[in-house]
Amino acid sequence: MRTILLSFGALLAARAEAAWVTTQGTGCQAEIPGSTTSLRAAWDGECRVGKVEGRGLLRISDGGRIEGVFRAGKPVDAEGQSVRVLVDGLHEMQRVAYRGGVAAFSPLIDDPNLMRLDIRSIAGRHEWRFLEGGCQEIHEFEITSTANVRSRDASVDYLVQLFALKRPGHWMMLARTATGGNGRADCVDVALTTFGETRRLFLQPRPEGGLRVCMEPKESTCFATLTPVTRTLITSAINPARGLAGGNGTISGAPGTTGSAAAIDLVLDRNKGALYALYGRALRENDKLAGKVVFEITLAADGSVTDCRIVSSELSDPELERKLVARIRLIRFGPQAGPGTFRKTIDFFPAA
What we know:
Blueprint: H1 8-12, E1 18-22, E2 29-33, E3 41-43, E4 46-48, E5 51-60, E6 65-71, E7 74-85, E8 91-99, E9 102-107, E10 114-117, E11 124-130, E12 136-141, E13 146-151, E14 154-165, E15 172-181, E16 198-205, E17 211-214, E18 222-230, E19 238-239, E20 243-246, E21 249-252, H2 261-285, E22 291-299, E23 305-313, H3 318-329, E24 340-348
Antiparallel strand pairs: 1-2, 3-5, 4-5, 5-6, 6-7, 7-8, 8-9, 10-14, 11-12, 11-18, 12-13, 13-14, 14-15, 15-16, 16-17, 17-18, 19-20, 20-21, 21-24, 22-23, 22-24
């Protein structure tokens, strides 16, 4: 097992919430980082009195994995990686090490030659083509740092992080961790069945647009291209009279004294990935969760949200509703004609 060196400060700051899950196949319980029991896990070691015990590997459905020694279901001398979900719906993969049962977290990728980039710079839908020709794929990056790849019959979900290399050539590094998929073969007849492993790809802008995809930050190792199909998360046209419809729901309504309906719909659409990420996690715990939510949003002249409340909701999930309101409060709508209050209706339904 690799040895992870963590600073004393990191160890002090790294206590985390934890939840218990029942591992598939064995039926024994294990403690995992985080506060949700909606995740699934698999354990390849022994069980004792209904809990994982001894040395083994625990794989978690969100891409996390912990390997080492467990006692009474809890990791005591182990290490691996864990997904951290931030308050605004962003996902972040971190390295985790347990010493004496205490968890210490550090960046999964901690390199002085790398600078973290906002995933928004590549957010949207891209077409992937191999340089040697043949098949193509659709890669869709969300602002929540998640991604989906569709290749022939295969669909694979990823957690992604983007970095800039501190070197000439405008190179970027994309770290992606497979978190789930349908197990079907992709366009090169390979079915991805190994999840939780983080792999790195290197990206470089092309003069004609799009990105080169390479194994190393060298042009001689490039093997594919990524060309944007949509540069934003908008998946359907905006009709200023009716608002925006598309994706997993609809956003409609008219503003008061603030900016145009189309402009506000555009900003909300760019942030819908974070809202639906919150809904998607709640949906794992209650697969019947669905309905319409009417938000009343008050903006300052600078476009910041000064107040947000729920006028009505069919979700009947106070915790999810609280998180949705908190996420909307973080949105910046841009300069407005003046302060104002408007209502927006969002329908939350499982993807078909």
